[in-house]
Write a structure and sequence with these properties.
Structural class of chain B: alpha+beta
Strand order of the largest sheet of chain B: 2-3-1-5-4
Strand content of chain A: 15-25%
Distance between the termini of chain B: 17 Å
Mean pLDDT of chain A: 88
Distance between the termini of chain A: 30 Å
Shape of chain B: globular
Radius of gyration of chain B: 18 Å
Mean pLDDT of chain B: 91
Order of helices and strands of chain A: EEHHHHHEHEEEEHEHHEEEHEEEHE
Largest interface: A-B, 30 and 28 residues
Number of strands of chain B: 12
Number of helices of chain B: 5
Oligomer: heterodimer
Helix content of chain A: 25-40%
């Protein structure tokens, strides 16, 4: 079970997270034949839902022995899909009798203390009639998550990989869900995905999201993309750039910072030629301008940049070191913190 | 990436220490008619390695056995899996099996700072080339290949497996990523030699050579993302030479699984 400090986070943050996906399926659409990658048919961009990203994060929290409420059936140590009553009891360690003896507020605190994912992303809590009765009226039916991401889109139109399109199902594995099987699949040649999210300090009060939780996000998102994409359809994902802009002004955020990061049309290969990170150059001019305009509201910019990214600033193609320098020029030297994901000062 | 093949023995049979080329033959049989068939015998590593059929030892009919096939090339494993599904007969010399199930395993040494142990499940073949002999002052006055032996000490072994893995890195991974000899630091923090032995091995039809093999236990501590990729590549391709005969197959110790 995880412990958390009870002080809710007080600053709003805006998160931009870019990762790329080579020869894989960034987000299959389960309603399509053969789990086809989600693509916006009008723009030709790949789409990745917030649910996909949250699944990576929940699975990483689970691997890190943080308690989570919405567990992944393929990772959890049970055979059948558990009921919500069971999920609640698993994460809190409380049985129905113990819950019955506690008042609603105490049960809520116990739940939020132990269910790390609910503090981030919220949850809908509908239980069996008996269990609901035991919980009492003080237990809310729904927690709104203070950390919300929009659906992500690729920075370019994508091409579906054709070689493996017709792979037939060759394995009927009894443990297929656990290990993955060879089955029909569809992949994208390449997709540079951009996520945008907000940490809302007002909603944080209702789920007890702490500043420790928010700091944890800075390494969690990077590590989740590294560790939770080892399966066959997801191998080929790499986190490339993470930025969390923490605001000092109450209830303020820019809201469009992500739009300022795009593929540089001149320096990048054309959309159909993109195959890996060496083909792509990020243009960050718009982002840096927005950041400079909002400098008075910004307390800290937390940044983690992969050393392989190329960045175009004022028409010049440079690397991540220049990006850090430009960030400091935009918001001030002391307002930029580089994230050490593994605590190894890589 | 690994393919775990569940087998059932179809007859009683004794263990067969000369299984290497017979098992290789079954895998190439699976690749017949696929684009990979054209790579057969072109002198370049195709990029697969396999375990022995385990548990080792005599078997009785209906006994269950397993074999692991690893590769960094997913399409190659897929082609093998397709054939195994369609043709479940798995006859390795005088040891007949039937394939019961196939599973894909995603093995990872872990993220930076993770410590662990890798063990060689089959012997490692390390050939010391002229550059190694010169660098480490190894004098060999005949023309036969020099295989690493304990008398050569650990340094040439360490260098030779890193050079070999660098070659595989250049072959199977994108150019912009640094390989094992492009970065500072050794692959492993500790190299524990368990034993050395020699084995007559059929390398091609009618050609049998005596290979000098060694078994090892390696300790590692993942330094960074590059190192993680190098160790995972070693799990996918095997270390040292003759991987196409199943030599150099690595396993992560179960106790380290997480």
């Amino acid at each position: 079970m995880s412990e958390t400090d009870t002080t809710s986070v007080s600053n709003r943050s805006e998160i931009i997270f870019l990762y790329d996906a080579e020869d894989c399926n960034p987000n299959g659409n389960p309603l399509s034949a053969n789990n086809k990658p989600r693509i916006d048919e009008t723009t030709g961009q790949a789409v990745v839902t917030d649910v996909r990203l949250k699944r990576y994060l929940r699975d990483q929290l689970d691997d890190d022995d943080e308690g989570i409420y919405v567990r992944n059936p393929s990772k959890a140590p049970y055979d059948n899909v558990p009921t919500r009553d069971e999920l609640f009891q698993h994460v809190t360690g409380l049985d129905e009798d113990e819950v019955d003896e506690m008042d609603g507020e105490t049960v809520t605190d116990a739940f939020l203390t132990n269910a790390t994912d609910v503090r981030y992303f919220g949850a809908t809590c509908s239980f069996s009639e008996n269990f609901q009765k035991a919980l009492g009226e003080g237990f809310p039916g729904q927690f709104i998550g203070p950390v919300q991401f929009e659906h992500a889109r690729s920075l370019h139109t994508v091409a579906t990989k054709t070689e493996s399109k017709q792979l037939s199902t060759v394995v009927a594995s009894s443990e297929g869900d656990q290990q993955g099987t060879f089955a029909s699949d569809n992949r994208l040649e390449y997709a540079f995905i951009r996520f945008h999210g907000i940490v809302n300090e007002v909603a944080a009060e209702t789920t007890n999201l702490s500043s420790t939780d928010v700091e944890r996000l800075d390494s969690l998102m990077w590590r989740a993309l590294k560790n939770q994409t080892l399966t066959r359809s997801k191998a080929g994902h790499h986190p490339r750039l993470y930025l969390r802009v923490e605001y000092g002004t109450d209830e303020y955020h820019n809201g469009r910072l992500d739009d300022g990061i795009r593929l540089d049309e001149t320096a990048s290969k054309t959309d159909t030629e993109l195959r890996n990170i060496t083909d792509a150059v990020l243009n960050v001019d718009g982002f840096l301008t927005e950041l400079a305009n909002d400098a008075a509201h910004i307390e800290t910019v937390y940044v983690k940049a992969d050393r392989h990214i190329k960045v175009a600033v004022d028409g010049e193609v440079t690397g991540p070191d220049t990006l850090i320098m430009e960030l400091k020029a935009a918001v001030g030297e002391d307002a930029v913190t580089e994230i050490d994901v593994y605590g190894t000062s890589e | 990436m690994r393919l775990l093949v569940d087998l059932v023995a179809k007859a009683d049979a004794a263990p067969d220490p000369t299984y290497h080329h017979k098992l290789r033959g079954r895998i190439w049989q699976a690749l017949r008619g696929t684009p990979f068939d054209e790579e057969h015998g072109n002198g370049e590593p195709i990029g697969f390695v396999y375990s022995n059929i385990f548990p080792w030892g005599a078997m009785a009919a209906d006994d269950e056995r397993q074999v692991l096939i690893a590769s960094p090339r997913e399409e190659l494993l897929t082609a093998i899996a397709e054939d195994f599904k369609d043709n479940p007969a798995f006859n390795i010399g005088d040891r007949p099996f039937e394939i019961k199930d196939l599973r894909v395993l995603d093995i990872d040494v872990g993220e930076p700072t993770t410590k662990g142990t890798l063990e060689t499940a089959t012997g490692v073949v390390v050939r010391l080339f002229d550059a190694h002999r010169e660098e480490f002052g190894i004098e060999d006055d005949h023309d036969a290949p020099t295989y690493w032996r304990p008398k050569h000490a650990i340094q040439p072994f360490r260098q030779a497996i890193a050079d070999n893995l660098q070659y595989k890195h250049e072959r199977f991974l994108p150019d912009y990523l640094p390989g094992p000899t492009d970065v500072e630091g050794h692959l492993f923090t500790d190299y524990e030699l368990l034993k050395t032995y020699s084995l007559p091995v059929t390398v091609t039809t009618d050609v049998e050579i005596d290979l000098v093999l060694s078994k090892w236990r390696f300790e590692y501590c993942v330094r960074d993302d590059d190192h993680r990729r190098h160790l995972n590549l070693a799990l996918d391709t095997g270390i040292g030479g003759r991987n196409g005969l199943g030599f150099g197959f690595l396993n992560r110790r179960q106790a380290d699984a997480h």
